[in-house]
Design a protein that fits this description.
By secondary structure, this protein is an alpha/beta fold. It is built from 14 helices and 12 strands. About 2% of the residues have low confidence.
Length: 328
């Protein structure tokens, strides 16, 4: 088969990397398109993933998002026309589901947060297959048009794409970190996401709390990077780094998003969420199991070295996701 994969955000590169490798290992032809947003293109380069860069993020306002969706979907349609794809795959990419529908290519979408209403009303209605964690009750997705299309997988998506991952300690030296002192990793709020439009005062207090320790802050946008660098109190990488190794060696992770939180869970690192939107079923389950903590105050953070005992990780076969996404 000829398969088209579209990547619109940084985590999508990580999620789809082993799927693409599995597909190519099975003899399928795979072509990748990617949007210029956050570190998506940088991560494609870091993982030596050949891709065609098409479009960029248009900003956080609803009107700008709508214009960006229309423009990029049409650009993808023009690019894909005549390439004779048999399947189109995306991780929450509205762009590819619209383009695939226009070209009558069967598509599959996957995601693990069910309350991105605008996104899912497009994806779930146009895609032939909707692949989600089994933590999400199927009935939560029916209002998006997903009834009869849902295929569920056990565990976290991070347990699949980190299955072959072993942390590299060189990341500590690369960032100038002293392994004998506590290391905190922080991911900024998804400021341009429609489902997270809140002033996050708690996140600001977290930054104040971490100002005097080794804190690596990973921004999502150039604007966030500029503000953090101007503050001069944190380590702010200029480019995409081996964030998974950094998380594995960190003593605490704080994130206002989702993927980094779940990477920390999968790698056995203590992790707090400061997400102020509506919790999804995956995070609800992790909190109930005690694998993820909801931060109520910056004082909850214990800035000490954690035990270095080997963590028993759950590693899942990416072939499971590959099969769910391609058997339409």
């Amino acid at each position: 088969m000829r398969i088209w994969v579209d990547l619109t955000n940084s985590p999508h590169v990580l999620v789809m990397r082993p799927v693409i490798e599995k597909l190519r290992g099975r003899g399928h032809e795979v072509e990748v398109t990617a949007r210029d947003f956050a570190q998506t293109l940088e991560l494609c380069e870091r993982f030596h993933m050949p891709h065609t860069a098409i479009g960029r993020h248009r900003g956080g306002r609803i009107g700008a998002k709508a214009r960006g969706l229309a423009e990029r979907s049409l650009a993808l349609t023009r690019w894909a026309r005549g390439r004779r794809f048999d399947r189109a795959l995306g991780h929450g990419s509205n762009d590819i589901t619209i383009a695939a529908a226009l070209l009558r290519i069967p598509s599959a979408t996957t995601f693990d947060y069910e309350w991105a209403t605008v996104q899912h009303n497009v994806n779930c209605r146009l895609a032939a297959t909707v692949v989600v964690p089994d933590a999400i009750p199927p009935e939560r997705l029916y209002r998006y048009g997903a009834r009869g299309k849902i295929r569920s997988y056990p565990g976290l998506k991070e347990e699949y794409y980190l299955a072959d991952f072993e942390p590299d300690p060189s990341i500590l030296g690369e960032l100038g970190l002293d392994p004998a002192r506590p290391v905190a990793v922080v991911r900024t709020p998804p400021a341009v996401s429609l489902y997270h439009r809140f002033e996050n005062d708690l996140f600001a207090r977290v930054l104040d709390r971490l100002a005097d320790v080794q804190a690596v802050v990973l921004p999502r946008t150039p604007e966030q990077r500029g503000e953090l660098q101007e503050a001069g109190r944190f380590i702010v990488p200029e480019r995409a780094i081996d964030a998974q190794s950094l998380i594995a060696f960190a003593d605490v992770v704080v994130s206002a998003g989702g993927t980094m939180n779940r990477e920390a869970v999968a790698l056995g690192t203590p992790v707090f969420t400061v997400f102020e939107g509506r919790l999804g079923a995956v995070d609800e389950r992790l909190i109930a199991e005690g694998r993820l903590q909801r931060l109520q105050s910056a004082g909850q953070l214990e800035l000490v070295k954690r035990p270095t005992n080997e963590v028993a990780r759950i590693r899942r076969d990416p072939a499971v996701l590959t099969d769910l996404l391609t058997k339409i």
